[in-house]
Amino acid sequence: MKLKNLNNVNVGIDLVEINRFKKISFNENKSFYRKNFSKDEIEYCLKFSEPYKHFAGKFAIKEATKKSINKKLELSEIRTYHVESKPSVKILNEDLEFKVSVSHEKNYAIAIVINKN
């Protein structure tokens, strides 16, 4: 595999323990979830039988995104979504392009974000 020019490429990675979210149940801590996730993100996660691994994955994506840019952001400014079942990320009021990968394994969710700007 030939590598393209890696100038102006920044990478962020984050690992999250899924049990952190299981301990903060959605029904008892809605304010925490509403502070960190959009309505669409919450609805997406809650549609699964194991929503906390999806919350952890989205949280990891948001943290990895923050690490891939040189700007202070609140998690609420970062929106995650899926296009054809693939994770994507968008920063509100920014025109940046990212590549995203997220994975869940047993007790952990991990995300890597590549900022190509």
The fourth-level CATH homologous superfamily is 4'-phosphopantetheinyl transferase domain
How many β strands by DSSP? 5
Which CATH class applies here? Alpha Beta
Average pLDDT metric? 92
Strand content: 25-35%
CATH topology: Ribosomal Protein L22, Chain A
Q: What composes the largest sheet?
A: 3 strands, antiparallel
Number of domains: 1
The CATH architecture category equals Alpha-Beta Complex
Shape: globular
The Cα radius of gyration reads 14 Å
How many alpha or pi helices?
Answer: 4
CA-CA gap between termini:
22 Å
| Residue share in helix | 25-40%
Strand order of the largest sheet: 1-5-4
In words, what does this structure look like?
The chain has 117 residues and is α+β, with helices and mostly antiparallel strands. It has one domain (10-115): Ribosomal Protein L22, Chain A (Alpha-Beta Complex), CATH 3.90.470. It is built from four helices and five strands. It has helices spanning 18-22, 30-36, 39-46, 51-67, and strands spanning 10-17, 78-83, 86-91, 98-105, 108-115. The strands form two sheets. It has a three-stranded antiparallel sheet. Helix 3 packs antiparallel against helix 4 (51-67). It is globular and about 45 Å long. It starts with 9 loop residues before the first strand and ends with a strand.
